Amino acid sequence: LCPVGRRAAASRRLLAFTRRLSSSSEPQSVRNIGISAHIDSGKTTLTERILYYTGRIGAIHEVRGKDGVGAKMDFMELEREKGITIQSAATHCAWGDHDINVIDTPGHVDFTIEVERALRVLDGAILVLCGVAGVQSQSITVDRQMRRYSVPRLAFINKLDREGSDPDAVIGQLRDKLRLNAVAMQIPIGVSGDHEGVVDLLERRALRFSGPGGEEVEEGEVPAGLQAAMEEKRAELLEKLADADEEIAEFYLAEEEPPLGVLRAAIRRQTIANAITPVFMGSAFKNKGVQPLLDGVVSYLPAPTEVTNCALDLDKDEEQVGLTGVSSDPFVGLAFKLEEGKFGQLTYMRIYQGKVGRGDTIQSMAADRRKVRIPRLVRMHANEMEDVESVGAGDIVAMFGVDCASGTTFTDGKTKLSMTSMFVPDPVISLALVPADKNAPNFSKALGRFTKEDPTFRVHTDDESGQTIISGMGELHLEIYVERLKREYGVECSTGNPKVAFRETASTRSKFAYTHKKQSGGSGQFGRVEGYVEPISSDALGQGAYEFDNQLVGNMIPPEFVTAIDKGFREAMLKGTLTGSPVMGMRVVLQDGLAHAVDSNELAFRAAAQGAFKQAMATAKPVLLEPLMSTEVAVPAEFQGTAVALVSQRKGTVNSMEGAEFVTIDADVPLESMFGFSSDLRGVTQGKGEYTMEYKAHVPAPRDKTELMVKKWKEQQAGKSEE
Known about the structure:
Elements (H helix, E strand, L loop, with lengths): L2 H19 L8 E8 L5 H11 L23 H6 L6 E7 L2 E7 L7 H10 L2 E7 L6 H12 L4 E6 L8 H10 L5 E3 L1 E4 L7 E4 L4 E6 L5 E5 L6 H18 L1 H8 L6 H13 L4 E5 L8 H11 L8 E5 L5 E5 L8 E10 L2 E10 L2 E2 L3 E4 L6 E3 L2 E6 L2 E4 L2 E2 L4 E5 L8 E3 L5 E3 L9 E7 L6 H12 L4 E4 L6 E5 L2 H15 L3 E3 L3 E2 L2 E4 L3 E9 L6 E11 L10 E5 L11 H11 L13 E9 L7 H16 L4 E15 L3 H10 L3 E6 L3 E9 L6 H8 L5 E11 L2 H20 L1
Parallel strand pairs: 1-3, 1-4, 4-5, 5-11, 6-11, 33-34
Antiparallel strand pairs: 2-3, 7-8, 8-9, 9-10, 12-13, 12-24, 14-15, 14-23, 15-22, 16-21, 17-18, 17-23, 19-20, 19-22, 25-27, 25-28, 25-29, 26-27, 30-35, 31-32, 32-34, 35-37, 35-38, 36-37
């Protein structure tokens, strides 16, 4: 097509989509999907092509594009500068007779909460993999998140135009590393510089993509040189499917060819059951393979009514009940993401059941049970909003003017149902934050907004220094928020040295028998507790958080005081005896005690528990724990030795190395040793190396580090007492 013709075609697609937007779709024709992957696997590039081919946008723009526009879904200024996705972004598009809600998620582990809350509300997902690097560290994390919420997924092997791409090797990694029953739906027509298109294994046809934006899909005969490979891979597909599906197994054992409709229905059935993972392939950047992937989304990923979603009935002691996904039933929705916009708080909501419209009154299932009116209802297209009058079950929309916390369930008030909460990982790194202007009015407002938006971003004031401490998932995570303070609120801040989240634990069982007694005229305070503390796991110190085991026999301590004792131990564990770090991985067993008829109360037993904890820890051989990071370093093969040496210098343990032209090094490294690693890695690899890391566990720190930390803590305490 000429430029005028292309613009006309794009206009027709946009017009067709606009007409669809005004109508609410039946749940059966809706697909709610997320696009997730390791950083730099091409998620946002793929999403840009999806939006273009579905008529949602009129032109393709690239991540860090030379035209200065940038990809549609990376709308934050920081995202376009850094070329990474920081916030998940939602949009809505149509493919054939189906509506697709798409959420593009970040690939960097520092922003994993964005992936977590997206997958919590989605029905299906596309796991994007680099055709060269294959399954990487964040691919494993994303797979774990998908399994947590039982999200069916398709895999898309991207970047087949790159030198060294090998889709067969990537499928092998999906099976070996992720334990997925991966089945290839296609084989490539050429790889690297020869990549032209793909062969559809089900229909035995070749698909090539032409036109400036790859809009035209040309079907043709399979090249003679690929006929044998096609039949081999098709036979493998049928064998894998026969292992999972009884109907296909009957055809397979009878050595009969299943009809195409039966085959597609079986693939859909087993994909939704998470028994298989269909694998598509192509190159999003070169505009190849995206349209067949969209066909796969519609054909194989579930509609909202085909997914089991459960809620807790608050009127029946949180009994689990299934949600129907039908628009005619009572309304149930979950607020899963918050943003502060120029018109106030924007609340993203997934509707699980029923329907809701502008002007409707809905009720929060949080403690306050507050009723709120919806003044405005919109569909999101990245940072653009399109007003809608009403939406039904299965839809994802955003509301204005509804003040709530992330994770709040809303109903129409006829039912008292609450959705289960999502998993929120604990922060692993902290920084002291000092505003240039201590009286800056926006400082507290900004931090309040950030903590409300992001559950992994925490803020507290240090008791000793009075400094504001921010905590998060990594250096980049905190760096982004410091930059947003400056850009969005005009608050310049300086930061202190990163502080690692050390913890303490007991290494052996230790008994306690402590009496709290206080008399100051009138009724006093009395409480005695006896029992012991021990590590939850003696083999892996620090595993678990806190367990309280009540083994009291009789009423030596009245039952109403047991909760206060539990609370006292919890409070005591906030500050350990070695370095003042929180205590984890501990079990407290309460065996006996004593109460006074007049002087015993909850306050007395809380104080007794705190004293008992300090008494027990004195002989429990406490151990300092430091966070260990699962680290993946990717470098060209010529820098392999240098990269391994760099990891070893930082007290890391190399677990494995894979790859030929591009080597991936898997290692465990203490977090404290990883500060500044990025610049050092770039320096020794001529800027070609990259790494990612995620929290693995807290492990005992080396003796010299423990002694140094204990010494510093004692000096701080001594200085404090002198003051």
